[in-house]
Amino acid sequence: MGKILSLREAINLIWETVEIGREMESGCPYLFIVGAGISAPEILTANGIIDQCKKKVEQLCQGDEEKLQRICDTAERLGENSAKYYSYWFEQAYKNKIHRQQYLKSIMNNSRISMSNLLLAQILNIKTIATTAITPNFDNHLLKSLNLLGNYDVFSANNMLDNIALNANSKTVQIMHVHGTYEFYDCCNLESEIAKIAQGQGIKTTAGTIEEFLKTKSPIVIGYSGWEDDVIMSKLKERLEYAALPYKLIWFCYSGKDYEKLPEWLKENEEVVFVLPEKKMDMRSEIENRIDDKAEDIALPAEDVLSALIARFGFKSPNLFSNPIQYYIDLIDGFLPEKIEIFPTKSWKRRLDYVEEHLGDIEKNIILLDESAARKDIVGTTSILKKMDYMFIPADDLEHILSGVIMPMVPSQNRIEDMSDQLAFLDVVLNLLTAKKKDISEEEMAKYLKKILGAMPYPGKDFGKEKLIHVFDKMLGIACLEEQRLLILGAKSELVDGEEQKNLLNEVVTSGSRELGNEKIARLVLNAVYWQIKLQGTLTEEHKNLLCTIRAMYAENEKILEYFYAILIEIYEEKADGGFAIEDVISQIREKNLPSHLLIRVYRIQADEETDTGNRIKIASETVQEYDMEEIQNCRGCLDYAHLVITVVCERLKLKEHVDRKYIEYAIQLCEKEGGCPLIVKNVVRMLQIYVAHVENLYEKQEICKKATRVCEKSKLYEEWIYFNESYVSELDQREYEKYLEEHEKYREYKQAADKIHEAVEAYIHLEKDVCKDLLFEAPECFDQIFEGKYNPALLNICFVARRGEGSELNISVLDVLERIDWMMGDAIYHINKALTLVEQGDWGNAQCEIRKIEENLDGAIEWWNREEVVGKREKALVFLLLSLEDKLRENMISSEKLEEMKVFAIENIDLPAHVKEKIDV
What we know:
Elements: E1 3-5, H1 7-24, E2 30-34, H2 46-60, H3 65-77, H4 82-93, H5 97-108, H6 115-126, E3 132-135, H7 141-148, E4 154-157, E5 173-177, H8 191-198, H9 206-213, E6 218-222, H10 231-242, E7 249-252, H11 256-261, H12 264-267, E8 272-275, H13 283-289, H14 302-313, H15 319-322, H16 324-335, H17 345-357, H18 361-374, H19 378-387, H20 395-409, H21 419-435, H22 442-455, H23 465-478, H24 482-493, H25 498-513, H26 519-536, H27 541-553, H28 558-573, H29 582-591, H30 596-609, H31 613-626, H32 635-654, H33 661-670, H34 678-694, H35 698-715, H36 718-729, H37 734-743, H38 745-765, H39 769-776, H40 779-786, H41 794-803, H42 814-820, H43 828-840, H44 844-852, H45 858-865, H46 868-871, H47 873-885, H48 896-909, H49 914-919
Parallel strand pairs: 1-8, 2-3, 2-6, 3-5, 4-5, 6-7, 7-8
Helix pairs in contact: 1-14, 2-4, 6-7, 6-14, 8-10, 9-10, 16-17, 18-19, 18-20, 19-21, 21-23, 23-24, 24-25, 24-26, 25-26, 26-28, 28-30, 29-30, 30-31, 30-32, 31-32, 32-33, 32-34, 33-34, 34-35, 34-36, 35-36, 38-39, 38-40, 41-42, 41-43, 43-44, 47-48
């Protein structure tokens, strides 16, 4: 299975690979594969072209609604296959190839160059990471970008005939347009045309050329969606099936949904690394979206990836970006002969040279800022800004510094620098804004602050509170818009406590109440009221009046009403007094026809609070029947819906009532919603385990186990995956069992590794410790391969023998290994091993804490440590003493005489701390 890395980890992997390659003089290790994402938004992506083609088809079918409907119905059936769907609409709109070419020409000819193309050109120019870009794009903007940066020594293969000139070891920058460019009549756009290229034979066909490159290079994929039948994907699949690539293939996905659409053969390959956008909630969106779950989908645009590469490698900035004067001097020198007299070039060159020589300190610093910004160097930019005297910056230069240098560098959600460096940068930017406040209009200041607010980390994570408060106070000093001031006050309130927190919230509510006509301020007031109620645990009459005022003011504003009721529901979830009967809330939400996820959430709360089991089942089942899960697009709504489904199933099982199979199917379908929400999946899988344990019908049990196994494998819930596989095979006869093993390779490999662990434990019990050690240290590698290093049942056994000094030494401490076995939290054997390790270190306090965490498998642990001949009398006594101290022993687990005997042994033979001796009653 391909690994998923953070942006920072992936960029560092590329940097390390290039550095090692430099030492070995092995040339550029990578090539770029780039798709429509690097030309967006200046050029339409496939989705944009589809939208335009739909409009064209509607225009062509005017007056023939039947024909239009047939076309739409056919397209709907192709919706699952992106390439077929795109091709179908394109061909319906433009049936002739020449018309398709002319259409592409019309949307590309006058479009501007995207920032991503410029950044990629900057990287290719350095010739460190790669010298070749392979693209299915039809535009020539990457070539234009390279030319614009002064590189005219570029070979662009614009059609298949040009492939003969491409060279995998070329030191010249090369661009391969696998489907041609829009300037050529033979550009390939439809699925059938793309497939022909993919099937081409011979070393100098497009397919053959890509194959040649992949022998020595590995791709860095950016802005490319990976259509299955495309020549690029065909050759990648072929290459990955043949042998490992020389370096890891690194695939940057624009979104989680884009990753999900990639074929399984790609996602499952261990030689492929995927980079997905990380959800890092910034201050503004966290406060504004906390309650109503309206945060925008997170994304990793090509610009952020390329900027991160430039920042990590510290690539020198092109003169066009950092020193336009020098750029034009070099341009004149490079193109015109020295003695030319037709144009006054010498005169102008002398003037440019003179300007260059007579730059003042401010101008020189601005050039340094431009160079630093072009390198995406936040630390360098911070250092330069600190040295500048802000008082002498002219108005024109100030506007350039702020809009042209600083704001493009304000950290996005996809940065690779340490957050401390990002905060230091924002701090010095605020110093500049403060110093030049009089020279900046309120409109511009608000725009700059909005950008900074969007980059601020949400309070209370891994950053010192004092630093954040300091930055917030600087923003408060320059905030012009009341909504921004209140937003900052609200954020600051979450960093402080006591009276200061109350005062800040009061300020938001009091000041905001005077401007409730401003929708954004009304939302902020609602949010502050929520926090006041949360802190106080009750809703006051003043709160109720304010909430009712806002509801009345925005009676026709669905967005504010949705936020209002979300706040109210959140108050109920906090178990605070909401001041409104829950039945009234349900009635009002229905009356206003607000989104269904609000009602589902209220019903979930109502069901949870219902003490009568029958009524609880009734509320949950009626809600599930009323709402179609396919219509729920809200993550919180899906989670609440899943909770209601699980309530119906589990409560009916407790009452020993029949559970309609449809609820089980609903639960399994929910695991696919919202990209497979981990919390939904875990809750559903836990419910399925309970259900499978109650099912008597063998066929039904096996069907559920098969589906649950697929859910667990996709979500990497490997312990549960084992449970459902074991449940499935438990009812099979020997012949069926062997057939199952034959058909399910992964489970077969697991069983082989698990059998080794079982044999190792049996060998240990029979005191064959060398045999045990050999078997134990064979199994972990097998489990790591099967479960991608995320679940390893052998580790606990290895920790047991390593802790006792009976096995090979580990590379890290036993305690560190145990800390990583997070899947065993709650298991008695796990926590006892951890406690024993801590006792040997003299840490009795944390050892006792581990015993308190035991939730399951205590009988199995008692059975194991009762084997005195295996574990020894000292360890047996120590375990029972620890369990006794935390009242974990039931009467039937050990006789009082035996327990007393072990306590006496412990006092006489083990170095016990004073507080333990005092607690032992013998």
